[in-house]
Write a structure and sequence with these properties.
This is H(+)-transporting V1 sector ATPase subunit F. It comes from Naganishia friedmannii. By secondary structure, the chain is an alpha/beta fold. The chain is globular. A 4-stranded parallel β-sheet has the order 2-1-3-4, with helices on both faces. It has one domain: ATPase, V1 complex, subunit F (Rossmann fold, 3-Layer(aba) Sandwich). The protein has 6 helices and 4 strands. Helix 2 links the parallel strand 1 and strand 2. The longest helix is centred in the middle third of the chain and has 13 residues.
Length: 120
């Protein structure tokens, strides 16, 4: 399959986030459950094991229908090693703030890569 065809088939946004972030994005219409009963979102709370977050990250980055993966930055910090190793163009990975945790550009793995390429 060509990469253009591959990109064309990627139509969903996936989210790994806290309840408030997920709720807002679901209300905006990103929610999807495929025929295999797999959701394109994971709600993370204080009791969610890191292994579950890591597994969801791996699943979403390997799914051929996901174009963008949004992850709350404070949750990305829990699996920072995995997030920092992620290099693929699709799905695009974006770290987003949450209501209780502001965005910190110093932690953003994508921004760090861009700065490194620019020589900053």
């Amino acid at each position: 399959m060509s990469s253009a065809q591959n990109a064309k088939d990627r139509t969903l946004i996936a989210v790994i986030g806290d309840e408030d972030s997920i709720t807002g994005l679901l209300l905006a219409g990103i929610g999807h459950i495929n025929p295999q009963n797999k959701k394109n979102f994971l709600i993370v709370d204080a009791k969610t094991p890191t292994t579950v977050i890591d597994a969801a990250f791996q699943e979403f980055t390997e799914r051929p229908d996901i174009a963008i993966l949004l992850i709350n930055q404070h949750i990305a910090d829990k699996i920072r090693g995995t997030v920092d190793r992620y290099q693929a163009a699709f799905p695009a990975l974006l770290e987003i703030p949450s209501k209780d945790f502001p965005y910190d550009p110093e932690k953003d793995s994508v921004l760090k890569r861009v700065q490194k390429l620019r020589g900053d």
